[in-house]
Amino acid sequence: MAKTWKAGVIGCGAIAQALHLPGYLRTPGVDVVAACDPVPQRLREAKALVGEGLRTYADYREMLTAERLDVVSVATPNKFHAEQTVAALRAGAHVILEKPAALSMREIERIRQAMQRSGRLVVVGFSHRHYRGNQRIRKLIQQGAIGEPFMIRIRFAHRGPSPGWAKSDWFYNPELAGGGALLDMGIHAIDQCHWLLGPIRGVQARTATLRKDIAVEDNAILLLEFERPRALGYIEIGWTSPAGFVGLEIMGDKGCLRQDNAGATTLTTGKITPNAKKRPKLKTRVIDPTPGKGGWATEVTTIVKALRQGLDLDCGIEAGAASLAVALAAYKSAKTGRRVSIPVK
Q1: Is the full-model pTM beyond 0.85?
Q2: Segments in the chain below pLDDT 50
Q3: How many Å apart are CA 65 and CA 61, to the nearest integer?
Q4: Each residue of 196-216: b (16+ CB within 10 Å) or e?
Q5: Burial state string for 298-329 with b = 16 or more CB within 10 A and e = fewer than 16
Q6: Cα separations (Å) of 246 from 61, 139, 225, 260?
Q7: pLDDT at 278
Q8: Where in the chain is the domain with CATH 3.40.50.720?
Q9: What is the structure's pLDDT at 312?
Q10: For the chain, does the N or the C end have fewer beta carbons within 10 angstroms?
Q11: CATH for 5-124 (1.20.1260.10, 3.40.50.720, 3.40.50.12280, 3.20.20.10)
């Protein structure tokens, strides 16, 4: 019989309570045995979810010393991601790391080195890769359903993490968060562009604080250039949108994939020739009526299963590094007003 893995969680706020703790609870062969958070109320909330047998700590270093953990979730404010991930790796655990993976490329390198020395793995929590609709879109692109993609548009927007969802307002603290909507939601959109169309090699961006009285940006727009020839992308991110379309659209030479995250995923096909004299005959069909299935409901189980089997989900520290590089370049572009190149590895 396979060994039961012991899991621990660093940070017991909203994402831990909504994703990581329940994720471990429904994953076969895993016991979530420990959690830490400096706020006593968060620890009480974690125990209410897991049970009184959960061992709790105020300091992650104490938890990592006292426990022998196989996998650890790092679900703290962005400022602490790198140091806590490195500590968990040194303690002999695999890590499920919330996005962004770090706040600088230097921190990314520290994580890389810790992985190499420990022999353990890091998987970054890009939840959108686990949604069924997005997985079907990627498969259809790989199968050539829309021909060669040349344009991707993504809009991820909601009313913001606080008030309402987050357990505190740390998302709006530049020292703890490192950025605003761009780093919080935009990092998901950037990863989706990488995952679906390939590496990004140039970005132009604008960030602004349009409506919220906060010290970080509440909206951002990114224009992307891909390594893929003749392809562009557009990302809009906002923390000021309780309504409006949220999803993506990918145009190719033979069709279009469109996903309304609150609706359905559709595929439009037909001979698309922009210079044709006659209007093209197009056919649209629903590929997935409920593309939001999966996501948080399956993420932890999928990651743990892959870690246990030694499988590569292609969502490790290099994926985290690639998206962070684009986000940092976007901030630089917004500050300078110029296009910024992303170096080729």
Answers
A1: yes
A2: none
A3: 6
A4: bbeebbbbbbebebeebebeb
A5: bbbbbbbbbbbeeeebebbbebbbbbbbbbbb
A6: 39, 21, 22, 6
A7: 67
A8: 5-124
A9: 84
A10: N
A11: 3.40.50.720
Q: Which helix (H) or strand (E) holds 209?
A: none
Task: Give the integer Cα–Cα distance in Å for 185 and 59.
Answer: 28
Q: Do the Cβ atoms of 195 and 238 come closer than 8 Å?
A: no
Q: How many residues does the chain have?
A: 345
pLDDT in tens, 212-252: 999 999 999 999 999 999 999 999 999 999 889 999 999 99
Packing angle, helices 187-197 and 132-142, rounded to 10: 30
Query: And the tokens for 252?
Result: 């190719």
Domain 128-291+324-341 is classified in which CATH homologous superfamily?
Dihydrodipicolinate Reductase; domain 2 (3.30.360.10)
Token pair of 145, please?
């359903």
Alpha-carbon torsion, ordered 210, 215, 216, 221, to 10 deg: 20
Cα–Cα dist 199/58, whole Å? 40
Residue type, 80: F
